[in-house]
Amino acid sequence: MSKKVILYRHIDSSNVNLVEERLGKELIDYEGKEVIIDCNELEYISSAGLRIILKIRKKFPETKIINCNQAVYEIFEMTGFTEMMKIEKKYKTISVDNCEVIGEGANGIVYRIDPETIVKVYKNFNSINDIVKERERSKEAFVLGIPTAISYDIVKVGNKYGSVFEMLDAKSFAELLKGGESINKLVKQSVIMLKQIHNTENIHNDLPSKKAEAVSWAKECTKILPEKIGNKLLKMIKEIPDRNTIIYGDFHVKNIMHLENENLLIDMETVSYGHPILELACSYSIYEGFECLDSKNPESFLGIPQDLCRKFIKMTFDYYFDELDDKEKEKIINKIKIISYTRLLRRQLTHFDKKDDKIQKSIDYCKKYLIENVPVVDNLYF
Fold first, then answer.
1. Nearest-angstrom CA–CA distance, 175 and 184
2. Which residue from 90, 88, 89, 13 is spatially nearest to 52, judged by alpha carbons?
3. Among 166, 186, 221, residue at a domain's last position
4. What share of the chain is helix, strand, coil (3-state, %, to 5)?
5. What is the pLDDT averaged over residues 220-237?
6. Under a CB-based contact definition with an 8 Å cutoff, are residues 379 and 236 in contact?
7. Are residues 366 and 285 in the same domain?
8. Based on CB atoms within 10 Å of each CB, which residue in 18, 52, 109, 285 is the most buried?
9. 20-74 pLDDT tens trace
């Protein structure tokens, strides 16, 4: 349970005693630890006002401040308050009603709100920390040379939050494909981006390990696979070589935007590090693997015909492994599929009702693929 108090207009030496007296009366009978200081109507606060907040925080250690306008937030930031306690900005509210959906990932949906601007709306209601972290990763990725769009504002969209990007006349690769752009040209451009990402060293101490995530997929799958096959699958995933290079994690045609003469990624929340085969397995899931759940799933998600989904991922593998002969390429693609169906099987086991006939059929499909193919490979890397 928390107690909210409100700060109004200007607080400086001329009125600080009155403000402190009012707040003292409002908090006199409160015995909790969290006080929420609402600054929605606060325009300025001096050092005298800041000392009031310090006194409140000393008595109520879980005090936090919300709804700061930019000027007030900058005062808290410059004086070090943002490092001492949780302080939230006041965000502009926008609507995405009737806006075109141009992209979607695991945690957010991207809308075009006008010809110059797009917004990624996070599905999680409590996403501010995720947005801030993603913005920082986007900036750092940009510095490293990874072509990514950088958010310039955070907004409220209903009861959720969004990150705003300026993307003048930009179109996603999915839109370009639907408009008749050459698939060969777009696949080549996407593979160039993918290889650039996979050759970028990870310098983020807080990036998660994709291999650790894949190990968790396999552990879940061992619960329903024959013991020998489950153990081999888990062992092979653990033996995937450690790589300290970047993995984008959600690489598909809706997340690649063409802007004038460059291509940019619009979503950095799934960035991790690890071996590229883990990235390729995730992409295969999106373009083709999810057919095991619903034959139209990739088409409805990516917004391009199903045959184009299959063609795009096949050509991606062809260009990514262009130096290999067809036989070697096919061996690697089978390994990619094994990892992909491990991921999908774990997802169906943990995220859905197994009593649903459609879910059970997809579980059976993934399980059958793994039972048939795990025994015929010696490792899951290239």
1. 15
2. 13
3. 166
4. 50, 20, 30
5. 97
6. yes
7. yes
8. 285
9. 999 999 998 888 888 999 999 999 999 989 999 999 998 898 999 999 988 999 9
**Is residue 100 located within the same domain as residue 85?**
no
AA identity, residue 349: L
Q: Is residue 381 part of a domain?
A: no
Taking the whole predicted model, whether its pTM rises above 0.90 is answered as: no
Least-confidence region, from 115-129, 205-219, 334-348: 115-129
User: Considering the domain boundaries, does residue 368 fall inside one?
Assistant: yes
| Phi, psi of 26, deg, nearest 5 | -70, -30
233 plus 347 within the same structural domain: yes
The residues, ordered by sequence, that sit 6+ positions from 160 with a Cβ below 8 Å of its Cβ are: 121, 122, 123, 124, 125, 127
Tokens of 287: 């373009």
User: Residue 85's domain spans which residues?
Assistant: 2-90
Pairing, β 87-89 against β 64-68: parallel
pLDDT of residue 181: 95
The pLDDT score that the predictor gives to residue 354 is: 67
Q: 63 with 149, same domain?
A: no
| Cβ neighbours around 360 below 10 Å, total | 14
Last residue of a domain, one of 151, 166, 181: 166
Rounded to whole angstroms, the Cα distance separating 236 from 227 reads: 14
Non-local CB neighbours of 351 within 8 Å, separated by 6+ positions: none
Count of domains for the chain: 3
Of the candidates 185, 301, 173, 196, the one whose C-alpha atom is nearest the C-alpha of residue 248 is 196
Same domain, 79 and 124: no
Report how far residue 163's alpha carbon sits from residue 154's, in angstroms, rounded to the nearest whole number. 5
Tell me: do 49 and 193 sit in the same domain: no
Beta bridge partners of 265: 148, 256
> Domain containing 46 — which CATH number?
3.30.750.24
Same domain, 286 and 308: yes
pLDDT tens digits, one per residue of 165-202: 887 778 899 999 999 999 999 999 999 999 999 999 99
Residue range 354-375, pLDDT digits in tens: 678 889 999 999 999 999 999 9
Whether 353 has a pLDDT exceeding 80, the answer reads no
